[in-house]
Amino acid sequence: MSADDSGAQRPDWGWAAPGRVNLMGEHTDYNDGWVLPFAIDRRTKAALRVRDDHQVLMWSAQSDDPGTAVVTTTDTRPGEVTGWASYVAGVVWALRQDGHQLPGLQLWVDSDVPLGAGLSSSASLECAVAAAINDRLELGLDPDRIAALARTAENDYAGAPTGVMDQVASMRGRAGQALLLDTRTMALEHEPCDLAAAGLVLLVIDTRAAHRLADGGGYAAVRAQCERAADLLGADALRDVSLADLDRLPDLADDGATLMRRARHVVTDNARVHEAVAQLRAGAWSDLGRAFTASHTSLSDDFAISCEELDVAVDSAVAAGALGARMTGGGFGGSAIALVRFVDVDAVGDACRSAFADAGWREPAVFAVEPGPGAGPL
Ligand code: ADP
Ligand code: MG
Q1: Would you tell me the crossing angle of helices 256-282 and 285-297 to the nearest 10 degrees?
Q2: In a structure prediction context, what are the per-residue pLDDT tens digits for the chain, which is 378 residues long?
Q3: Is 20 in contact with 37 (CB distance < 8 Å)?
């Protein structure tokens, strides 16, 4: 290994891409529905050096195993590397699939988005790397195209079958604004979201519970059930289904009752996205808080992707005065978000920490997030 291959000669950080929270619309994105995320003021930074061969070397300040993953831009393919390197190599692969010839690269990343906490560190990593390569090599890709390629990297190279919300939020986020995204048409509207002006804070309660597979399935399994429910109802996607349609499901399949509950969450959460936009526009904060909690109940009871830690975080936050709270992200662990008045912030944090202590769990990390800018040069 030469001195230059050791990672010691990192250039200045040149690009950054944020994580996200999702205010409403969970597991609606792969059902052609709507989502309402915002990019958070936590991000992954990237630095890039072009090599004169075709090797890709990468270092992460968050990895104990830096610099060891090496692929080549000319022939890397899914399965070649696993773990964190697969998100970076996946971006290189997706760009090549899109017809771009890439030279060798050295990539450095450092992030203050907690990993695996449901705040989309994975998309912030992919988007930071993709934005860096796009700018440095002048590929001319627009932010929506970068989001699509980053999603391809995550789905087809890293092997996580997620929807496109995380990458769009990371690429298109704006300070002080949430994003209303129609995942069928990809139409995007920026919605003002000035919580501070309303005397409010959005608290993240990172349960630090590892993503776990609940009984009967993880992300891929519930996604398949949603697709089957739509199929049985003769619809292209659950976006096109009404609550009344769902009553037919129990007669259409042995597991129709389960499919009905899963689908009911998607149908009602889609409706809650539109309600939440109206509540944001009207400053109807108490209603928005109640909608958060209703969404959590739906995710926990109908969709069955919550876990004890998330339920305790939501219940304690609401009992301590939060206007409402819900899990955010893929589920089975990760983080909850709570809409909280300034004056109640300490009480809500204390209540969550003490409920976790009583249960004998690790202390949750509780911190505020604000809508921040999307990916770009630093
Ligand atoms: P989330 O996106 O909610 O944080 P995921 O499970 O989708 O959770 O992605 C987390 C994974 O992404 C980590 O386990 C790691 O492999 C990778 N990752 C994200 N950010 C970094 C980083 N800065 N350095 C190394 N790996 C990272
Ligand atoms: Mg992720």
Answers
A1: 170
A2: 554 666 778 999 999 999 999 999 999 999 999 999 999 999 999 999 999 999 999 999 999 765 566 788 989 999 999 999 999 999 999 999 999 999 999 999 999 999 999 999 999 999 999 999 999 999 999 999 999 999 999 999 999 888 889 999 999 999 999 999 999 999 999 999 999 999 999 999 999 987 655 444 577 889 999 999 999 999 999 999 999 999 999 999 999 999 999 999 999 999 999 999 999 999 999 999 999 999 999 999 999 999 999 999 999 999 999 999 999 988 889 999 999 999 999 999 999 999 999 999 999 999 999 999 999 999
A3: yes
Residue carrying structure tokens 């939020």: 169
Ligand 1 atom 8 nearest Cα: 116
Instruction: Pick the atom of ligand 1 nearest to 118's CA.
Output: 3
Which amino acid, 303?
A: F
Q: Among all ligands shown, which has an atom nearest to the Cα of 331?
A: 1
The total domain count for the chain is 1
Q: Estimate the crossing angle of helix 165-172 against helix 121-136, to 10 degrees.
A: 50
CATH of the domain at 149: 3.30.230.10
**Number of the ligand 1 atom closest to the C-alpha atom of 329:** 3
Domain containing 99 equals 2-177
Residue 119 Cα to ligand 2 midpoint, Å, equals 7
Asked if the structure places residue 191 within a domain, the reply is no
Structure tokens given for 220: 């891929």
170 close to ligand 1 (CB < 6 Angstrom):
no
